Amino acid sequence: MQALSQLSYTPESFLLTGESQPYRDTLNRYYTNLSYNTPMEHRCLSPWKGAVVGGLIAFIWSAVSWMALPFHDKTIHTFADAAPVVNALEGGAPSSGIYILMNDPKGQTAPTDPFLFISYHKAGWGSMGSSMALGLLIQMIGAFFWTWILGKIPGLTLKDAALYGCFFGICIGALGSLPNWVWWKFPFGFVALYVVDSVIAWSLASMAISHCYASACALPKAG
Fold first, then answer.
1. What is the dihedral of CA 180, 209, 39, 30, to 10 degrees?
2. Torsion angle of C-alpha atoms 17, 20, 21, 22, degrees rounded to 10
């Protein structure tokens, strides 16, 4: 019996006939163009290009969301009189860091005793320029790795990239922000906006990343 590896097939022998089905044309095109002498190729993505393009888009959306849109401002409140609060922190917080108050320091007397979660930085907020530069760098690092993942998907279309970006945004937004709502009692609206921002930012960024092509690369042969 002739060995299976020695059998010769022609693309025409794989053509599917019969009633039309949504996937039949796609399979026919694949088998018609199939070659066992050359590996199947697809357009690879460049993580370096994706880091710049995707990182910039994610950063720009974040800036627009925080600086131009009103939604985040509605989730943040200011103190009616900040001076006593600052004085109390200066006296009771010896250094910068995270401070929590689980209940009234005099002893819990009611279920509604306050809970405080404070991010305290004695030197002040700092430079806007350096904070924006660091924020952009973080987005670019994330875009680099996300481009590498997207580049592993053969035949990636613009619609596919948007859908994958949407799910990616949901994952990083929910897993990165919702635990603060659960454990540290951040307001739900505050963390929900982070999830929404992540979904929008990475959907847009992924569509742009899908066109950050590198050289064509070969997929490994089956078997």
1. 90
2. 110
Indicate the helix (H) or strand (E) that contains 190.
helix 188-209
- Reading phi first (left if > 0) and then psi (alpha if -120 to 50, else beta), residue 155 is in left
Q: Which two tokens stand for residue 222?
A: 């089956």
Backbone angles phi, psi at 153, to 5 degrees: -100, 110
Q: Which residues contact 155 (CB under 8 A, 6 or more apart)?
A: 42
Predicted TM-score of the model (pTM): 0.74
**What's the CA gap between 119 and 161, in Å, rounded?**
37
Query: How far, in Å, are 53, 193, 205 from residue 201 at the CA level?
Result: 12, 12, 6
Residue 153 DSSP class: S
pLDDT digits (tens, 9 = 90+) for 97-121: 999 887 765 666 666 677 889 999 9
